[in-house]
Amino acid sequence: MSVQENIISVIVVDREGVRHELEAPTDMSMNMMELCKSYELPVEGTCGGMAMCASCHMYVSSNHVLTQRSVDEEDMLDEAFHVEDNSRLGCQIHLSNDLDGLEVKLAPVG
Amino acid sequence: MIQTDILIIGAGPCGLFTVFEAGLLKLRCHLIDALPQPGGQCSEIYPKKPIFDIPAYPEILAGDLTEKLLEQIAPFKPGFTLGERAESIVKDDEDQFILTTNKGTQHRAPIIAIAAGLGCFEPRKPPVENLIDYEDKGVEYIIKDPVFYRGKNVVISGGGDSALDWTNFLADGIASKVTLVHRRPTFRGHPDSVQKVMDLAEAGKINLVVNCEVVGVEGEGKLEGLVVKHKTDGLKTIQADHWVPLFGLSPKLGPIGQWNLNIDKNAIEVDTFDYQTNIPGIYAIGDINTYPGKLKLILCGFHEATLMVQSAFKRIYPDKNLVLKYTTVNGINGFD
After folding, report:
1. Are B116 and B255 in a shared domain?
2. Where are the domains of chain A?
3. Cα B115 → chain centroid
4. What is the pTM of this model?
5. Could you tell me if B32 and B111 lie in one domain?
6. Which B residues, 201 through 240, put their C-beta within 8 Å of a C-beta on chain A?
7. How many inter-chain contacts (A to B, CB under 8 Å) are there?
């Protein structure tokens, strides 16, 4: 995969196990929650990206090094279910060129 | 029976501002909200977050926006039914809607404005199999009366303030045994509450189970035990008379979804002419509605509310002419 004109490619596996390869711009201050919504994948993003609802809970299944969970994100994950070591809130994963090839799986709704 | 002109479901910013615009047209409003306080998401989810796209406010905290709106609508003396969820509507023979809440309070109005945002906030329920069978048979999502737990073996789940506070409270001579189960070893919430929980655990007065979550419920006809999964040690069963999972609130569309309104992806379809739904007399404004080009922004909700009340006026008074009057000319003439 190559990074061209600030577009990366990420894989989102939905709750039915279907893989979606998405083109993601890295120059629009977007995060994974917003990217999923823009492709009409079933991510609510209820709080609008403030790490305050956990409706964009997803698992990171590739080996990309992400920024550490903030205190807010960690606190919010306390109110989520099915939380694993690789759990993240999509709204806290900001799209950047080094995330080319990122793969995530949407967590169950709950 | 509470009678009004416009019955507003949802006391978030959009519902509150509707009172102002309706008041300018001499229409009275009454608001219903499932939460115990007005403000909707602004007061429940993010009161301390700044908002930057309210015109003329370069920055305003969501909680302060609520306060300002309440101040702005005060002259129009809105009524409130708080802590109750709008449940059902029927029409009477005078073309008025009768709306009943989950607590049985009845309201009557010719116009309903649904400004319910994401829906009503309800306790977040853990995805545990057969949980519903034990609701009110040992599983409660809200502690209404702590005395109910006197002498009982109570398990609380969660890591926030309510989990910590209730653990401390019930351990103080009320429950016979209190266990707090939490996903990780550290707690958010007020440092004093966290310290108190740690002290009680140290003194053996509560049972603190961390790196764990409840994954199963057991019992014959009522709750008797919980299956707890430890991050590394696997499953074990603990005894419990009561389990109180405290994982905050999340919004659900709820009973509104059963009112025969046209719904698309959890939002109510409206005509952008006046934000009326497929049921004449019922309007939907703010985050709860959808139409081509919809943006879920507070300022768009304010606009929708303003246009909506014009249409509502014409529905209530079909023979009266409506002239736009500027507040700069007429000022605010509130209700006595």
Report:
1. yes
2. 7-100
3. 12
4. 0.82
5. yes
6. 213
7. 48
Pick the CATH number of A7-100 from 3.10.20.30, 3.40.367.20, 3.40.50.300, 3.40.570.10: 3.10.20.30
Helices marked H in chain B: 13-24, 41-44, 62-73, 161-171, 191-202, 298-316, 327-330
Residue B190 counted as domain residue: yes
Q: Is the pLDDT of residue A3 over 60?
A: no
Q: Are residues B213 and B182 in the same domain?
A: yes
Q: CB B250 to CB A53 under 8 A?
A: yes
**Inter-chain contact A47–B124, Cβ cutoff 8 Å?**
no
pLDDT of residue B194: 95
Q: Which distant-in-sequence residues (6+ apart) come within 8 Å of A76 by Cβ?
A: A51, A52, A53, A54, A89
CB nearest B158 (choices: A50, A78, A82):
A78
C-alpha–C-alpha distance, residues A59 and A84, integer Å? 8
Dist. CA B336–CA B334, nearest whole Å: 7
Give the end of a domain, one of B247, B279, B306.
Answer: B247
Residue of A nearest to B183 (CA): A78
Within this chain, do residues B216 and B258 fall inside the same structural domain, yes or no?
no
Mean pLDDT of chain B, nearest integer: 95
Contacts of B247 in chain A (CB under 8 A): 78-81
Examine the domain organization and report whether B196 and B304 are in the same domain: no
CA distance A21 to A34: 15
Q: Under a CB-based contact definition with an 8 Å cutoff, are residues A11 and A104 in contact? A: yes
A81 → closest Cβ in B45, B127, B159: B127
Backbone angles phi, psi at B320, to 5 degrees: -95, 140
Neighboring chain B residues of A71 at a CB cutoff of 8 Å: 188
Chain B residues within 8 A of A50 when measuring between CB atoms: 45-46, 49
Residue B335 resides in a domain = no
Residue B231 burial class via C-beta count within 10 angstroms: exposed 0-12, middle 13-18, buried 19 and up: middle
pLDDT score recorded for residue B307: 97
Q: Is B178 within a domain?
A: yes
Contact B218, B226 (CB under 8 A): yes
Total tally of structural domains belonging to chain B: 2
Q: Whole domain around residue B199: which residue ranges?
A: 131-247
User: B236 and B219 in one domain?
Assistant: yes
The answer on pLDDT for B33 being more than 80 is yes
Q: What is the ipTM of this complex?
A: 0.76
Note the pLDDT of residue B109. Answer: 98
CA distances from B235 to A15, B88, B207, B214 (A): 26, 43, 17, 9
Using the Cβ of B247 and the Cβ atoms of chain A, whether some distance falls under 8 Å is answered with yes
